[in-house]
């Protein structure tokens, strides 16, 4: 009989990073014959007192919170630490194996993406200095290194911590910072939550995204994306791989392997590139303003006349500008974003096609069906089946559908 070990997972299940690490641990258990009974609090920070006396066999813990390292310093069972990487080797916890997200590579991936988009003004939106935010300060170090390497002066704004009483003040300060930056500018936010705040500030200030401010976050958090009007680009951390690696290390330790001070850095898994960072230099301010409006409201059923009203010019004049600059109509641009949104829903898994059509601003599921057939050569149902089978994605060609719904 295989022995079943009792393992504590000390993570905050409210954080997307922690949840993905836990998912990786579960994937390791499912792919091996390892048998663990898992102890998992919704938020372990509420019950750290006495954890060093826990009568189990091992612990995997989030060490980004310095209180955790202190609480587990006297722990007598094997511990594997998970957290962010550090520029200085002295900052790593001593005596425990450590699996880290590579903070420098996270920032470099976002930095290179914005540079490749043609942006030369870059800034970072970080978090206030605090012991629990050490990982954010490490990301700042990476950003500063890249900027100085390129002979540029780093621009970092930390703002305030999220707080209901100070929310209005924080937004006003973010808008003032955004106005102070040279445009166009690319901004790296240390998390998707911070990126979402800036997207809201840009919307309130009437700052066009991504023409004036191109923005990318870190975490690829689906909840944060659902709460933004403009689809948000994000660096995908290798958090699941970190979880699998941490579980493998602990499994080895439970079988007598000594791994103290082992350090493994896990690189990011890639970038989910969406509208917020797809910077294109617009030649005419009316086109830039119109596209900013369309990105926010395409899925709410807007029509060409409403876009023209927002810009403050006639429909025919706006159509002329669009044809000259983009080679398409205003309706084509609206429809392109609706298609992108529908494809995003279908790629994420099971969903009702009628609900998708409504959420994406199509007047009916039949109309969405005809758009898919004309532009992608398949029905929404066929596209969904293709996504489930992990077949290569179909490219979205330039739209040229008759303006039936404009």
From TrEMBL:
PANTHER family: LACI-RELATED TRANSCRIPTIONAL REPRESSOR, XYLOSE OPERON REGULATORY PROTEIN. Keywords: DNA-binding, Transcription, Transcription regulation. It comes from Pseudoduganella buxea. GO terms for molecular function: DNA-binding transcription factor activity; transcription cis-regulatory region binding. Residues 288-386 form the HTH araC/xylS-type domain. It comes from the Bacteria. This is Helix-turn-helix domain-containing protein. InterPro entries: Homeodomain-like_sf (IPR009057), HTH_AraC (IPR018060), LacI/GalR-like_sensor (IPR046335), Peripla_BP_I (IPR028082), XylR_PBP1 (IPR054031). Gene3D superfamilies: 3.40.50.2300, Homeodomain-like.
